[in-house]
Amino acid sequence: MKPYVYITRKLPEETIAEMTAHFDVKMWDHEDIPVPREVLLEEAKKASALITMLSDKVDAELLTAGDNLKIVANLAVGYDNIDLETATKRGIHVSNTPDVLTETTADLTFALLMATARRVVEAAEYVKAGKWESWSPYLLAGHDIYSKTIGIVGMGKIGEAVARRAKGFGMDILYHNRSRKMDAEMEFGAEYSSFEELVSKADYVVSLAPLTAETRNLFTADVFTKMKKSAIFINVGRGPVVDEQALYEALVDGEIAAAGLDVFVKEPISADHQLLKLPNVVALPHIGSASTETRTAMIKLCCTNVNAVLSGDRPKTIVNKEVLR
Ligand code: GLV
Ligand code: GLV
């Protein structure tokens, strides 16, 4: 019997071709609807490998549903949706998709920064709504980007790729990270700074931080108060690093100027969420790595990792190295 691989979303057949020859592969039927929990639990009982989305909760119940599971290949660089401790205890490999999405996610981060600063979405809606009746000097005037200071919180590979773009735009660069990044300091003149100093000095506070126990609720009311009143907050990492109520109040009270958000505490965010009512919020549906090329590369990397582990080899990218023997 061939090992059974279950994929929690419908993916284009051609992207998973390298697996179908060796394994019995089944996909959930829908592109846009998540697999129901009961179905996923049933599938996990039989599966040797799961390819999961960041929206799937891969908890202890799921990881212990069956005895065959050897790898969970998550279609994301982040893996906060996975109970890593249980996976590691059970010897289950957890893989993610770093590197292939770095530049694409940095592009989106910068696009969101620029759209928020220059009010691109508001301006486009204004024209289409037929509101443009005369040119005027301060019509939809926004904030400059060049010559301003960007503060990057979470200086991983994506953070460095954002820093490279910021340098090209003539920005000064501050960053905060668990470890110093000497390459970025030399190459882009990025300056290491404490979190407090960064949030108080930056014109653009950009969060790319992964969700961990230390980063959950990192951006509180107190932090927004420390920011400049002209500051623009951009989040392309994970929603729960932000206290959204505090962000809302900071925007309404003028503690900060605007926010560009690709991620939210609860995704999908409800259309009647108070943050979405604000004109100075640009909201996107978690599309950081969503270019066709990159999503295909991410799927292929998941398949490569599944292939490797089910053939007894090392996966190309792994989160819990402890399971490698
Ligand atoms: C997306 O958010 C990812 O983690 O890849
Ligand atoms: C994290 O791994 C990143 O690429 O920023």
Layout of SSEs?
Layout: E1 4-7, H1 17-20, E2 24-27, H2 37-46, E3 49-52, H3 60-63, E4 71-74, H4 84-89, E5 93-95, H5 102-117, H6 120-128, E6 149-153, H7 157-168, E7 172-176, H8 182-188, E8 191-192, H9 195-201, E9 204-207, H10 221-226, E10 232-235, H11 244-252, E11 258-261, E12 281-283, H12 292-310
Parallel strand pairs: 1-2, 1-3, 3-4, 4-5, 6-7, 6-9, 7-8, 9-10, 10-11, 11-12
The chain binds glyoxylic acid (GLV) (2 copies).
One glyoxylic acid binds next to helix 7.
Give a structural overview.
The chain is α/β, with parallel strands linked by helices. It has two domains: about 5-100 and about 290-325, NAD(P)-binding Rossmann-like Domain (Rossmann fold, 3-Layer(aba) Sandwich), CATH 3.40.50; about 100-285, Rossmann fold, CATH 3.40.50. About 35% of the residues lie in helices and about 15% in strands. The protein contains twelve helices and twelve strands. The protein has helices at about 15-20, 35-45, 60-65, 85-90, 100-115, 120-130, 155-170, 180-190, 195-200, 220-225, 245-250, 290-310, and strands at about 5, 25, 50, 70-75, 95, 150-155, 170-175, 190, 205, 230-235, 260, 280-285. The strands form two sheets. It has a seven-stranded parallel β-sheet, with helices on both faces. The chain has a five-stranded parallel β-sheet with strand order 2-1-3-4-5, with helices on both faces. Helix 5 (about 100-115) crosses helix 7 (about 155-170). Bound molecules: glyoxylic acid (GLV) (2 copies). One glyoxylic acid binds next to helix 7. The site of one glyoxylic acid has 7 residues, from loops.
